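Thread: sanity check for a docking pose with 2'-deoxyguanosine-5'-triphosphate

Original post by kr_44:
Hi all, I'm comparing my docking run against an independent structure prediction. Below are the sequence and the ligand SMILES. Could someone generate the full complex and paste the structure tokens? I mainly care about where the ligand ends up relative to the chain.
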Amino acid sequence: MENADIAKIFEEIADLLEIKNDNPFRVRSYRNAALIIGGFPESMRSIVERDEKELENIKGIGKSIHEKIVEIVKTGKCQFHDELLKELPPGLLELLEVSGIGPKKVQLLYEKLGIQSVDELENAAKKGKLRDLPHMGEKTEEKILKAIQELKSRKGRFRLSLALAYAEPLVAYLKKIPGVIQVEPAGSLRRWKDTIGDVDILVTCKKDAPVMDRFVKYPDVKEIIAKGDTKSTAILKSGLQVDVRVLDEKSFGAALQYFTGSKAHNIAIRDRAKKMGLKISEYGVFEEKTGKKVAGENEEDVYKAVGLPWIPPELRENMGEVEAAERGKLPRLVEINDIKGDLHVHSSESDGIHTLEEMVSYAMQKKYEYIAITEHSKAVGVAHGLDDERALKQIKAIDKINIQLKGFKILKGTEVDIKADGSLDHSEEVLRQLDVVVGAIHSKFNMTVDEMTDRIIKAMSTGLINIIAHPTGRIVGVREPYPVDMPKIIEAAKKYGVMLELNSYPERLDLNDSHCRLAKEIGVMVAISTDSHNRLHLDYIRYGIHTARRGWLEKDDVLNTRPLKEVLKILKRE
DNA sequence: GCCGTTTTCGGCCCGACTGTTTTCAGTCG
Ligand SMILES: Nc1nc2c(ncn2[C@H]2C[C@H](O)[C@@H](COP(=O)(O)OP(=O)(O)OP(=O)(O)O)O2)c(=O)[nH]1
Ligand SMILES: [Mg+2]
Ligand SMILES: [Mg+2]
Ligand SMILES: [Zn+2]
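Reply from moderator J.T.:
Ran it for you. Here is the predicted complex with 2'-deoxyguanosine-5'-triphosphate included:
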């Protein structure tokens, strides 16, 4: 039982309770717990094994949910969940996936028509059986049929980079509408989450600007879900959903604060306002008694009105940022301009596209002081990995080029394969001649957690490795992380003086946000690298930076914010 | 079910859009 499985159980408990018309705040508690556990950096299993009392320290997890986590970890089951599933058929859960269908309709459909699955719902709608139910008519049937089609072709959450690629031209299109003043991506895009459920765009404009009419005519729109004066929703041909919110420029700050979220952050901020006698909505901050508007034009004022400094969007997950802001303890997050070099770069010598010289010239354009050339080793055959001999040749070649470079240095490196037994795919003799050794797992993923964790720790214990690359091996939306105990890895990294990579490839973003935060807590430095295989990949650094910011990292927590001299000192192995 | 600048009970964010309704419930952001 991994965290994702436990989160799913609580999510289902929330859904089932909601269908049963249970207390909505109880429902929220389960849903909130699912959110917390799903994003937690350490597995519930290892917390329970070490000391289950630690669960009590997690905000949002109380006695009841605590007990259920322990039960699930120990027995693999949750009795309460099982009982709910005896009362209600499991098919009701899939009905909730149909957009427009919520708990009340599910209950109604089940009780009046015995509908227990999406297929049954589709049949009933086609036969016109739904229109007899209260609050439903012919239009509802049509809408449900459309929503079922949409569900069947739904692809799940989009990679951040892909969602951005769809959002950018739409933003440009909206900016050209007459009367439009500002167009800002908001939601999870502005928070730089690794995956995006839908794109949220905030627009401010002069009165009567035809924003919504033009939005729904955007050539890439496939279907209009809703269209109102201030809020519309459409689905693009790619299947990506877009929400556009339009407000007056006087509300820009409050609207951006609202639409950036996260939902949990908004609730926390609004709750705080309420306790101060204020009310926050997307229109502004208002005094509860008089209704007088006290903020709204810009975001900073909204936070100021509730006694807080402005909080960077990447932190707005209600994971301690409100408390930190209150105590003046917000981190000074790392910025893209802090980056002085890139420590994971390939050239055409292994599986890169561009030559070493081409990579260097682009890095110099970016005003970097250094990059490390880190080719694969021979075990990664598909990538033309280097054996010792080729590695030695490359060392000599780099030495030669370095002589001619001014104000820039190529670090001699490798992305050495960590073999199944934890040994490294180059000789110690070669590894000792390199400036930086990046170690990574590339095959044999089907190990137990303990085996995989030991494998990586063994590699770290050789004293030959500086950095572990893409430490969990996940591919966003494609491959789960291999089983590995990250807290143990991070502790071992601390012990052996090894650093961890945040791989900036948008398909990887590995370490992820919560692991970055754990690394900082434990005191392990993170290297934000791009793993570039062509020169434009060097620009992927921005994904890494924003993910690091989501993990609360500051400049000093990041290895490659340091100038060349310092980095070389840190990379020196005993 | 959770939690504590109204602390161990009582409150838990606030508003838009739709389809049905004749005054609003449901769903969603
Ligand atoms: N106050 C408040 N704001 C909400 C609520 N639901 C959503 N929002 C705000 C905050 C969200 O970040 C923003 C956009 O909503 P989305 O459902 O698109 O969520 P978000 O973009 O955060 O994540 P996503 O990747 O789309 O799943 O709207 C809510 O229930 N209350
Ligand atoms: Mg969104
Ligand atoms: Mg949205
Ligand atoms: Zn690589």
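Residues 3-19 of chain A form the longest helix (17 residues). Hope that helps with the comparison, let us know if your pose agrees.
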